[in-house]
Write a structure and sequence with these properties.
4 copies of one chain form a homotetramer. Chain A is mostly helical. Chain A has 2 domains: 54 residues, Homeodomain-like (Arc Repressor Mutant, subunit A), CATH 1.10.10.60; 143 residues, Tetracycline Repressor, domain 2 (Orthogonal Bundle). Chain A is built from 9 helices and no strands. In chain A, helix 5 packs parallel to helix 8. Chains in contact: A-B, C-D. At the A-B interface, helix 1, helix 6, helix 8 and helix 9 of A face helix 1, helix 6, helix 8 and helix 9 of B. Chain B binds a DNA duplex through helix 1 and helix 3.
Chain lengths: 200, 200, 200, 200
DNA sequence: TATGAATGAGCCTTCATTCAT
DNA sequence: AATGAATGAAGGCTCATTCAT
């Protein structure tokens, strides 16, 4: 086992190299037009070696959002625990979402411009990852209503659509046009305006 | 000239047949994976005949949103003229957008799931068509502020992002999951909630 | 009949337009890569109209050398009649060949670079036209031997090969590289040197 | 390195197989009409494998004369070194040229009927290969003049044109019509007659 | 584990040719 | 006679994937 660990670590490292390279290439060319050869070159390995870790190009593409979204959710759980109100937590979630995209623009391009709107992706794990996003927000909206932080008459699904759609659209515009130029500065006011909508 | 008109009409008819067929196929398979052979079959003509009207597959794909968006904008101008307040007009625009998507789901899939988020589409005419959407909303938001219909402190770009993002997200969710099941019924409340945000 | 003649003339005119246009296009692009559309455009008529005169692209290509070579041969017969010696006539033939190419470079490109060396052309009429070239020279070589203008031991086929090959190679080099720059000036000495070979 | 050599050899072998197959197919059908599928079948490999070695059909076609001409030139240098007079060397060069064509008729068809007269081939390496032919002859003609083996008044370019054109034309006739039936037997007298032209 | 080598399946695009008007 | 419209057939090239080593 002591001899295998380094190997396993090495393997995990290579797998991550592939994911990183793939993220960049997919973000640049789109999944359909991206070439495995380009990913391999970017990762510094042989094309056929990619298949040691991922069975198909699509599987590779789908693995990317799954991993990072899981990370995002986990990190949110960590930081949310300390916050007193649902409003704070919801606010944090939206802010973290935007920050995450800003910090990982390649990943964000892949997620928001390729995976999310994809007609074709039916793979269960990806769908679940993405859908969790909505579920988390709906759950918080219900919780806030329940705790009296905002009106109980607020439709949680509709409101979640507004929150998610607004943040997503801000990010898409930034990813495609780099507007607003300073995404970090723009996120606060956007979240504030959205939160304002919840108030009585 | 009287002899040429039927020919021209026939030609325009065929071009429209191709556009309709292409919309369906692109919506189903995505632009990258769609096959010209399928489009031709759907249109009931020979593959090579498509090239009498469109130079490449991409050009064909791009023509679709351009035409319909122009229609949408024109129809909006018509109907907006009669409305007294900016709020009414803005409300109409958002409602019409949703209705247009509901009435033309294939076109909407192509626009919202393929064209809009595309990393790759740089073609000027398409970009302009899509960007006009934002410009129209921003212009109305400014007008409303100017006319005192809502607070002048409202940031028009941020607010436009919320409006567009919310509607787009509602449509995307409907296109992908058919939720809400009754899009028509859901549009009114959504627009109302968004308009409520503008109130002082 | 008086009403048909103009039509026939018009038709012949159009056919000639096509031949001229085709010569230019074939010379520029080669027969295989030349497009009927380009020829039609060059001739200022519809593509399908070409088929009123020539059944296929190849037939059109082959018609060109046939016509002009026939012209060349006829003109040679005319002018040769007045010459006293076979040597003079042979000399004239080679000179006229070079002059003809210089005066009709497109036709010459087609003949020397496409038709003559073509692996594929088996059509009898073309082959005969081209082969007549050799036959005329061989006949003159025999005649000269017979008349004692040069040694009877001279192999007529081999000598014909030298004469034709030399002239053809000079023309090909000129067509491809424009060397010698002044083909007209170079033709005399070339013919002289070749004729010198016949001398005892 | 010892492990790579067999692979490299295998690769070179396959590349040569492709060249051989391509030569045959190009000679039969002409470059423009030849199909990659036929070449692949002839070589016993997949079409796509050809693209491992040559980027396009044209590149493949051009590689063929380049390689063999280089061989011919190299072999000539070898054998010429032992010969005392320029006349001997020139004679050898012309003879070798004819022999080479006779021994490799497919290659010769490609070179003399497709590549050499091609209007379209501008690729530098091919042009240089072919042009070297003329340069070698001109150089020898100059050398012979210089060494007093023949008249210094002989124009080297014109004479080279005669030598090359005569040999080429003999070969073309043989390639197209198999005349003379015995090319080998005909080459000697042809070279002799040409050499006779150089004599004072 | 890692990869170089090989390929099969597929698809866009071109273009000579046909034919109804 | 002349042509615009339409197409069938064809082919070069790409690329994800496989597999022997």
């Amino acid at each position: 086992m002591s001899t295998q660990e380094p190997k396993q670590q090495r393997s995990r490292q290579r797998k991550n190299d592939v994911l990183t390279a793939a993220t960049r290439v997919f973000a640049r060319d789109g999944i359909a037009k991206a070439k495995m050869a380009d990913i391999a070159k970017e990762a510094g390995i042989a094309v056929s070696s990619i298949y040691d870790y991922f069975p198909t190009k699509e599987a590779l593409a789908y693995e990317i959002p799954i991993q990072r979204l899981a990370q995002l959710y986990a990190e949110f759980e960590d930081r949310a625990a300390a916050l007193p109100t649902t409003r704070d937590r919801l606010s944090l979630f939206l802010t973290m979402t935007a920050d995450h995209a800003r910090a990982n623009p390649d990943w964000a391009r892949l997620l928001y411009l390729e995976i999310w709107p994809s007609v074709l992706i039916q793979e269960a794990r990806v769908r679940r990852s993405v859908d969790d996003f909505g579920r988390i927000i709906v759950a918080m909206l219900r919780e806030g209503s329940h705790r009296g932080e905002w009106s109980a008459s607020l439709d949680p699904h509709r409101t979640a659509t507004i929150l998610m759609g607004s943040i997503a659209h801000m990010l898409i515009t930034w990813l495609l046009y780099r507007r607003p130029a300073d995404l970090e500065a723009a996120t606060g006011p956007m979240v504030e305006q959205l939160m304002g909508m919840l108030e009585v």
